Amino acid sequence: MHLPWTLLFLLLPCCFLVRDFTEVKGIMGGSLSMQCPYEEKHRTHGKSWCKGSSLVFCITLLETNGSEGEVKKGRVAIRDNHQNLIFSVTMENLSADDAASYACGIDEPFSFEPLLWFTVSISQETVVKTSKAATWTAEITNTTQGLLDGNLPKDKNSPRRSSLSNVFVVLIFLTSLKLPIFLSLVSMVIWMKRLQRRQRAAGAHHH
Questions:
Q1: CB burial string 47-56: b at 16+ within 10 A, e below
Q2: Are residues 36 and 106 in the same domain?
Q3: Are residues 25 and 118 in the same domain?
Q4: Whether residues 181 and 118 fall in one domain
Q5: Rounded CA gap, 24 and 28, in Å?
Q6: Per the database record, which ranges form the Immunoglobulin V-set domain (predicted)?
Q7: In whole angstroms, what is the distance from residue 144 CA to residue 142 CA?
Q8: CA distance linking residue 75 with residue 69, whole number of Å
Q9: Same domain, 106 and 172
């Protein structure tokens, strides 16, 4: 029994599926570098970097002509080292679209010989760090305003009072770095508070 040609074409990619992938993790906005060693006979052959999970559908992103030095296109670069028989692939300014499967390999006259396969995943670590920094800054600002207004919690076990000691440590550190500027800002805030109170008292006296 002969299989239809359409069915053969559907089964063809399955014959080229790759199962041995090296997992690589990157950070949004960062860079990744993958190393691809090769044999002596491939020293002067072209080197390639393609995107895809199978040999049939691996789209070439960058290729060299076999010479040493760096070849770059967009955010991808290949640097070949003939002495150590290895070439490196660097991906810069990583984005969510870079999360995929890739292969590095050798350009043969009429084919592509893959050397290693990679699975790249991208995390949002930079966003998390920014959020933590913003939260910490807001906590310092709110606590400093509470100190100036005199609205401190009386309960010693209060969560706000427990975090107050940590804020004091940060404030001491900041003042040691920028003491004149910090003192000037604090003095200005206190002066404005007193001025507002005097204006309110004067207004109440006139009424």
A1: bbbbbbbbbe
A2: yes
A3: yes
A4: no
A5: 13
A6: 23-112
A7: 5
A8: 16
A9: no
Q: How far apart are CA 71 and CA 62, in angstroms?
A: 8
Give the structural domain span for 190.
167-206
What pLDDT, in 10s, does the model give residues 74-97?
999 999 999 999 999 999 999 999
Domain presence at residue 202: yes
Beta bridge partners of 70: 79
Closest residue by Cα to residue 32 from 88, 87, 72 = 88
Q: Is residue 128 part of a domain?
A: no
| Among candidate residues 123, 155, 177, the one where a domain is terminated | 123
151 touches 54 (CB < 8 A): no
Round to whole Å and give the CA distance between 48 and 182. Answer: 56
pLDDT in tens, the chain (207 residues): 444 444 444 444 444 555 588 999 999 999 999 999 999 999 999 999 999 988 888 999 999 999 998 999 999 999 999 999 999 999 999 999 999 999 999 998 878 889 999 999 999 875 444 455 555 555 555 555 555 555 555 555 554 555 555 656 656 665 565 566 667 777 777 877 777 777 777 766 655
